[in-house]
Amino acid sequence: MIETATETDRLDRRRQAIVESARALFVEQGFERTTLGHIVDRAGGSLATVYKLFGNKEGLLDAVVFDQAGSGESLIREVASEGALPAETLRRIAAKLHQRLLDPGEVALVRIVIARSIEDPTFARRFFETTAMCTRQALERIFVAWSEAGVAMEGDPEMLAEIFLGLIISDLQTEAISHGVAGKPSQERLALRTEFFLKGSGLLE
Prior knowledge:
- The protein is mainly α.
- The chain is elongated, with a radius of gyration of 20 Å.
- Helices cover about 80% and strands about 0% of the residues.
- The mean pLDDT is about 90.
- The chain has helices at about 1-30, 35-45, 45-55, 55-65, 70-80, 85-100, 105-120, 120-130, 130-150, 155-180, 185-200.
């Protein structure tokens, strides 16, 4: 049993090292230009281990993308648990989610995801379901909880969650597609949008 546990731990560490190296290389030089050999050179180990753990480069891309897929949902839960008033909670969620999603590494990965989604609709649906959909549902649950607690707001929770998330996702999509041509998204502009949303939704203190 000890040997089995030790072998499992070793494979887990090797898997993490491979995924981190693949993510870095996909961001630095693109998915198409990165070979499994490049990844092994950076991560160490062997091609045999990569094939054993991921099957092929597409399987490795799946791991890179979906290992991080729930990060938006967990961030929302974390901020909501702080117990601030609704308006302040949404300000914090907007700022933190925007900062995370507009990280250059995240933007570069989204470009890869967009290209892969054109070729693989199943991958596209899975990505949407485990990222944007889960994030929106987490937001919706917050609005539902506030509504049930008697907080007055304009609009139903599903619509409010969709609109609020759109304030942030629009910057990610623009940055991914325009490569900076549209100007660097700023926290200041996001703050203005957030206040407009709070006023329109009736949640501004």
